[in-house]
C-alpha cells in the first residue's frame, strides 16, 4: 500500500497519508505528479518489457503528449543483482536532475524522499504507482537491501538518469527503506 509521510527537516512527523487521492493532492502542492495506473490488458506472469509497454501504452502516450517525453524503457532490480549495494548507495544521496524523474512501478516497491522546501516527503511507492519528480527537485531514492521491482521510466533528454548531487547529508537523518516499509 502506498503511503506518504511528511516530516520537518528536524525529523518531526507532520502528516501521515495512505489514501492515493490524498497523496496525489498533497504531492501536487509541491509539483510532483502521483497517479495510480492499471494495465489496459492482463499481464502474464513474468511479462517481457515489450508486453509491459504495450499494456501501459495508453498511459505512457498521455504523459508523452503532456510533458514531451522523448523515450521510455523498462528497468528491473532483483535481490541477486551484482551491483545492488553500489546502486543503492548512488541513489541514497540527495540529488537533482535537469530532467524529470518518472517511475511507474509495474511490480515491487521503493521509497522516494522529496525535499523541495523545509520538509521531507517520504513516499513508499508500490505496484501501480506512478511518480513524476520535476526537474531540479531535491530528492533521493531507497530500493532497500534486497531490491525487487520493475519500473517503466520516461525521459525528456537522451542522456536519461544524470544526477547532480547537492552535497547535503540530510538523507542520513531519515529512516531507510527497511524502517519505512515495516513501520
List keywords for this structure.
183 residues, alpha+beta, five-stranded antiparallel β-sheet, 12 strands, Jelly Rolls
CATH topology: Jelly Rolls
Which radius of gyration do the C-alpha atoms yield? 16 Å
CATH homologous superfamily classification: Jelly Rolls
SS-based structural class?
Answer: alpha+beta
What is the architecture at the second tier of CATH?
Sandwich
Query: For the record, what CATH class applies?
Result: Mainly Beta
Order of helices and strands: EEHEHHEHEEEEEEEEH
Instruction: State the shape.
Output: globular
What is the percentage of strand-forming residues? Answer: 25-35%
Strand element count: 12
What is the total number of structural domains?
1
Mean pLDDT comes to: 93
What's the total helix number? 5
* Contiguous uncertain segments of 5+ residues: none
**Strand order across the largest sheet:** 2-1-8-7-10
Largest sheet: 5 strands, antiparallel
Helix content range of the residues, please? 10-25%
Distance between the termini: 12 Å
Amino acid at each position: 500500500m502506498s503511503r506518504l509521510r511528511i516530516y520537518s527537516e528536524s525529523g518531526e512527523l507532520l502528516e501521515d497519508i495512505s489514501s492515493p487521492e490524498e497523496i496525489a493532492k498533497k504531492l501536487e502542492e509541491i509539483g510532483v505528479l502521483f497517479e495510480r495506473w492499471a494495465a489496459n490488458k492482463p499481464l502474464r506472469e513474468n511479462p517481457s518489457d515489450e508486453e509491459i509497454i504495450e499494456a501501459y501504452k495508453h498511459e505512457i502516450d498521455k504523459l508523452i503528449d503532456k510533458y514531451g517525453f522523448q523515450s521510455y524503457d523498462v528497468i528491473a532490480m532483483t535481490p541477486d543483482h551484482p551491483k545492488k549495494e553500489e546502486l543503492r548507495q548512488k541513489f541514497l544521496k540527495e540529488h537533482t536532475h535537469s530532467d524529470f524523474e518518472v517511475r511507474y512501478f509495474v511490480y515491487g516497491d521503493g521509497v522516494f524522499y522529496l525535499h523541495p522546501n523545509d520538509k521531507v516527503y517520504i513516499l513508499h511507492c508500490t505496484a501501480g504507482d506512478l511518480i513524476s519528480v520535476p526537474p531540479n527537485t531535491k530528492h533521493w531514492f531507497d530500493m532497500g537491501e534486497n531490491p525487487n521491482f520493475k519500473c517503466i521510466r520516461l525521459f525528456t533528454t537522451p542522456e536519461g538518469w544524470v544526477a547532480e548531487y547537492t552535497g547535503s547529508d540530510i538523507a542520513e537523518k531519515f529512516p531507510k527503506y527497511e524502517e519505512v516499509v515495516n513501520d
